[in-house]
Amino acid sequence: MTTQRRFLVLARTGDKSLHERWLDDDGPGRSWDLQLNSYARDPSKAADQDLPTVFDHGTKWDSIVRHFRADPGLLERYDYVMLPDDDVLMTTAGIDRLFAIAVEHALVMAQPALTLESYISYPILLQTPGFVLRYSTFLESMACCIRSDYLRRLLPMFERHYTGWGTDLVWALLMESPAWRAAVVDAVPMTHTRPLYTGPLYSSYAEGISPQAEIQAFRGAFENFPEAMQVYGGVLANGRRVRSTEARLRNAVGLARIAGRSKLPKNGYRMALALAGRAVVTPHFRPKQLIARTGSEMAELGLGRRPTQP
After folding, report:
1. Were both Cys, which of 34, 51, 113, 151 would link to 127 (CB 3.0–4.6 Å)?
2. What is the pLDDT of residue 205?
3. CA 136, CA 234: separation in Å to the nearest integer?
4. Are 290 and 222 in contact (CB under 8 A)?
5. What is the Cα–Cα distance from 217 to 195, expressed in whole angstroms?
6. What is the dihedral of CA 164, 78, 299, 141, to 10 degrees?
7. 101-113 pLDDT, tens per residue?
8. String of b and e for 37-53 (b: at least 16 CB within 10 Å)?
9. What is the pLDDT of residues 218-271, one digit of tens each?
């Protein structure tokens, strides 16, 4: 095995993976190990990194579940695990800083913000000037960093819903006290380089996998399924913490200023307006744990339990 590094980057990689770029500025102080879970057809594109490469030609989430099931002690050895796709550009120092910020702010989940050059689905994830991080009810599955004990709790959900669609709508809200525990980290940007819905995963949907059906299953599984992506606080570049109204207004103004240079400008402007509106309509918003409906699959998996009464 490797050194006693506290963090693991477990990358799902193919023949065109960019993971070698993540090590361009590598040095002796790197805080994380890199392991590949690879669907590459050319083994030379998936050489062993800090840990041996595991080859698995499934989709991302069922492959990750098998990875941890086959090595059950892996999660015990690391405090946090990052699960990036192979088409994101990051730096060694940036990944180091993401883990450091997650520890400093006691986050259970975190993800890098997206640069303006990125192909995006959700403008709320674009890097917003002036913030170190923004607390959010939504983190995307593209390159999420998850505390190991919480990831262990989520594995049964991925085992059942392995396209991943819908899981990232709820995973930041399944913990008993979700407020202030999941954040988009603006201090650590990444670039998503591949146009949306073009990866090899999507060819498997023709075989009967229905992401839309999985999303609908999640909608029906919870009593309080979230209807909107919410930012409800943040930490500014000067270290000052801001609460719901100020965070959303700052986010709205920042997003309005940069939306025109993004790949989804209209969506960016709409999100900016939505953030401003939510700051007025729900000025003291604070996320609550999702509650699984009795008898639902999520309840059977032990996710979305009702909070413990004092």
Report:
1. 113
2. 47
3. 9
4. yes
5. 27
6. -20
7. 999 999 999 999 9
8. bbbbeeeebbeebbbeb
9. 899 999 999 899 999 999 999 999 999 999 999 999 999 999 999 999 999 999
How many residues belong to the chain? 310
Structure tokens, 17: 């993976």
Taking the C-alpha atoms of residue 182 and residue 184, their distance in angstroms, rounded to an integer, is 7
pLDDT at position 197 over 70 = no
Would you say residue 214 has pLDDT above 90?
no
Query: Considering just the CA atoms, what is the radius of gyration of the chain in Å?
Result: 19
> What does the alpha-carbon distance between residue 229 and residue 214 come to, in Å, rounded to a whole number?
19
- pTM, to two decimals: 0.94
Instruction: For residue 309, name the pLDDT band (cuts at 50, 70, 90).
Output: low
Identify residue 212 by its one-letter amino acid code.
Q
Give the CA count within 13 Å in the CB-facing half-sphere of 9: 28
Q: What one-letter code names the amino acid at 121?
A: S
Closest CA to 264 of 122, 70, 146, 165: 122
Long-range contacts of 235-241 (CB under 8 A, 24+ apart): 235/105, 235/131, 235/132, 235/133, 236/130, 236/131, 236/132, 237/130, 237/131, 237/132, 237/187, 239/132
How far is the C-alpha of 85 from the C-alpha of 192, rounded, in Å?
9
**Rounded-to-integer distance, Cα 100 and Cα 243, Å:** 22
Q: Which amino acid is at 185?
A: V
Kindly state the tokens that stand for 157. Answer: 């959900």
Least Cα distance to 251 among 184, 206, 202 occurs for: 184
